[in-house]
Amino acid sequence: MESSPDITTPEPESSTASNTFFELIYSPVNILLTVIIIVLVYKLFKSKSTKVAAVLPELPKLRKDMTVAELRQYDGSQPDGRVLVAVNGWIFDVTRGRRFYGPGGPYAAFGGKDASRGLATFSVTSSDKEYDDLSDLNSMEMDSVKEWEAQFREKYELVGKLLKPGEEPTSYSDEEVEESDAEKKKEK
Description:
The protein is mainly alpha-helical. It folds into 2 domains: 33 residues; 100 residues, Cytochrome b5-like heme/steroid binding domain (Flavocytochrome B2, Chain A, domain 1). It is built from 7 helices and 3 strands, in the order H-H-H-E-E-H-H-H-E-H. It has a 3-stranded antiparallel sheet with strand order 1-2-3, covered by helices on one side. The longest helix is centred in the first third of the chain and has 28 residues. It starts with 12 loop residues before the first helix and ends with a helix.
């Protein structure tokens, strides 16, 4: 009897290659390096957010009506960094969103200005008029402005009204602010 030669079937190359790939990925050195990279990235982002919080001190609450000229002073370029934006005749303190509305932000054109027309027409430009009454906007654009106003009311502090030419400012007291805030909460 002749013995048959031992025939071994070679393993497919893809199986060997995938085993080698998984050995490389799951090696202890690679796992350790991955953990170190994740920790470093976390520390990098954490330190940036801490610096931003340290740089922007808590500003006192501002409650007053302003003209367009007075509003222009609050574009984020002044020493305290306060940014105000007007929407549909109301002024909001958007300093918390300074990276969007402050200098260098994508919506910096709205900082210290009436953003109503730009928000209504989906344009990142603001009105350069002394006072923009929005009377030429169509109903869809006005609905958009009202939606933006509602969003700003939810997210940012109300400062006061944007005064029309010749309009007198309202004199706000601390008690009135508390009463108006309480009334808003009751309405919701």
